[in-house]
């Protein structure tokens, strides 16, 4: 008879299994109670300690974990780039723009703050996030080299695409003139963004790759033994903490109507889930569509499951690290409080995407295990089919030999 497991041990297992979700809740609570600690320009100077330090740790770990040949191969994977970047810069803005115009048509009393709607158009046009994509893809068992390649490409394109694309898509009504006519100087923004890409992304990634190249076996052993990749997940909590601290410190959330807050909270979740489903469908189209060709080109093609996971995390995600500096640089003449309200969709979407992505990590783990079991079953079935004819053939040959022997004996009989 086995003894029942103590209650405290079961609670401890639940906490350990869901530590990231619990950590997000604690980070949000600390941000609400002490917003001046981790806000931009706050006590810990999070614009450097977190947006440089924590992000650098994530990409150092990525450099230590990913083989060079794997990363180089994914950098030349044009189908993957087309799928992710078109989704991020074209499909997401199209969906958000349709929703914004639907709200404008039905909300004549402006119960949904127009700053929120302008913020959503801006959010749709910014590139995919820098750190969480790689961490979530790795946690789900996907191809983190593919995620890393998409992060680098998107954040190099983003500073040049986002500003003009946002102004182009803004509704033409007068209530959006304040954002359309904002004539900010983007020079400082470009300098800050590319400085962060160089110091927080490219440099630690190069250092990690160099260390892995020189001591590949030792690096792989240490990474696996001490589970260094878990540190990257912990760094995400620091990013959520500083994001919400800045949000609460500006009073932007408090200045929005109840309808606007409810809309933003629920729409973020619905949008992220919808975009993830679309990315999955585009990555793994039905076999019937895969037979469609255009000349010698196959129009639809299923990509490997590990790359599919990377697409599903990179396609719907957006970057607060690039989004917030770009927003404030684009609309420098705009009132600070109005800019803070405009930034709410960016801040909340990038936070909620990490929360929802945590559940998709478990969903994709289940999916990959299911594919693996199906593959094993198909291989066993193929072996059985291959073995069966050989067995029947051997039985048939034995019967023929037995018949020939009996006939021979009968012919030799007196």
TrEMBL record:
InterPro entries, sorted: Na+/solute_symporter_sf, Put_Na-Bile_cotransptr
Gene3D superfamilies, per database record: 1.20.1530.20
TM spans (from-to): 12-34, 49-66, 78-104, 116-135, 197-215, 236-255, 261-282, 303-326, 346-367
Region ranges (Disordered): 380-414
Alphabetized UniProt keyword annotations: Membrane, Transmembrane, Transmembrane helix
Biased composition (Polar residues): 394-403
Short name of one Pfam family: SBF_like
Domain of life: Eukaryota
Compositional bias of kind Basic and acidic residues: 404-414
Protein name: Sodium bile acid cotransporter
Organism field: Aspergillus pseudoustus
């Amino acid at each position: 008879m086995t003894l029942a497991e103590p209650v405290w041990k079961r609670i401890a297992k639940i906490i350990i299994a869901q530590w990231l979700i619990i950590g997000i809740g604690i980070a949000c609570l600390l941000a609400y109670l002490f917003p001046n600690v981790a806000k931009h320009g706050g006590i810990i100077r999070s614009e450097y300690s977190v947006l440089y330090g924590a992000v650098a740790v994530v990409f150092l770990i990525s450099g230590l974990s990913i083989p060079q040949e794997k990363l180089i191969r994914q950098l030349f994977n044009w189908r993957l780039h087309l799928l992710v970047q078109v989704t991020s810069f074209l499909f997401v803005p199209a969906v958000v723009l349709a929703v914004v115009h639907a709200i404008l048509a039905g909300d004549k009393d402006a119960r949904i703050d127009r700053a929120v709607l302008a913020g959503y158009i801006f959010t749709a046009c910014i590139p995919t996030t820098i750190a969480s994509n790689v961490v979530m893809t790795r946690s789900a068992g996907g191809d983190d080299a593919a995620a890393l390649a998409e992060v680098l490409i998107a954040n190099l394109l983003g500073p040049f695409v986002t500003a003009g694309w946002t102004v182009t898509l803004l509704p033409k009504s007068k209530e959006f003139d304040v954002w359309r006519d904002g004539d900010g100087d983007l020079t400082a923004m470009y300098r800050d963004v590319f400085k962060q890409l160089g110091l927080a992304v490219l440099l630690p990634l190069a250092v990690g790759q160099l260390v892995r190249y020189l001591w590949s076996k030792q690096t792989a052993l240490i990474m696996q033994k001490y589970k260094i990749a878990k540190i990257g997940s912990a760094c995400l909590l620091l990013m959520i903490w500083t994001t919400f601290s800045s949000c609460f410190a500006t009073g932007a959330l408090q200045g929005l109507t109840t309808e606007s807050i409810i809309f933003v909270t629920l729409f973020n979740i619905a949008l992220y889930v919808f975009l993830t489903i679309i990315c999955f469908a585009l990555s793994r189209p039905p076999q019937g569509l895969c037979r469609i060709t255009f000349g010698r080109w196959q129009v639809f093609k299923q990509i490997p499951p590990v790359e599919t996971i990377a697409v599903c995390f990179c396609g719907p995600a957006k970057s607060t690290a690039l989004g917030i500096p770009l927003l404030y640089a684009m609309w420098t003449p705009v009132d600070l409080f109005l800019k803070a309200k405009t930034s709410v969709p960016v801040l909340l979407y990038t936070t909620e995407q990490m929360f929802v992505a945590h559940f998709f990590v478990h969903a994709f783990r289940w999916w990959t295990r299911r594919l693996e079991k199906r593959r094993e079953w198909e291989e066993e079935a193929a072996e059985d089919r291959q073995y069966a004819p050989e067995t029947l053939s051997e039985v048939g040959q034995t019967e023929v030999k037995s018949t020939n022997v009996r006939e021979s004996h009968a012919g030799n009989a007196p």
